[in-house]
Each structure stands twice: as structure tokens, then as C-alpha cells.
Amino acid sequence: LADEEFVLVAAPALADRLRPALAAEGPGALHEVPLISYAEDLPIVRRYWRHVFGRRLTCRAAVSVPDLRAVVAMVAAGSGFSVLPRYLCAAELDSGALALLDEPEDAPINTAYLVHRPGAFDNPHVPLVRDHLLHAAREW
To answer: Cβ(38)–Cβ(50) under 8 Å?
Structure first.
């Protein structure tokens, strides 16, 4: 159905300070900066670290809030850095409220699949929802 791309972001002033250190020292340069996440087990951040940096994430979240929109707001306010789905923070990236810390050639993605149970098309609403999702996904 769609691929969501993950991006490493911070507020612009923090990003300006972190980019040179990240380029010189690698991801360890971020260990002294608060990590903001939506979950204690850091699934998005762990995936990003493994995919982009080729190593296991060794830091913990400074703050966990169970809403990715809240993570966007906290990071844009300068509270720390995070890894977020690009679609969720695209407006903030476009407006300059958030900045990318890096731009890997091969950004990690999460693929969303549209599936249905066998026999689901006996319900006339299932194909209507499927067609609507497929049409809407062209814009994602």
C-alpha cells in the first residue's frame, strides 16, 4: 500500500550544532542529547540505527510519549532529537520547524500492506474500502 520513510530530526538550532559532530564522531555524538520517543522499546529508532549506522542502539529515551504527534512537537520545541516517519513531520520539515540531522542514501522504511481475509469480498463494504485506500495511497 505504502512505504513510510524514517528520518532523524531535531530543531534547527540543535541540528546545526549536532550535524558536524554526527559526521565526525558517528551516532555516539547523539548520546548526550535527549532522545524523544513514542515507546520505551524505541522500535523506530532501533530500526534507524541498525539500518543507517549499522550498529545496535545503546542509549535510552529521555522522554517517551505515546503519541508521535507529541514527539514531533517536543522535538520542534528543541527538547531533543528523534526518528520519525517523514510523512508525519513533512510540514515541519518544509516550514523549517524541524531539520534533518542526516540524509542517508538508503533511508529505512516501513512497508504497509493492504490485506484481507479469504471470503472478505462477500461483504460489499470491503472492496469499497480497499478501492478508497488504494486511490488515496497514490498521494502518500
So the answer is: no
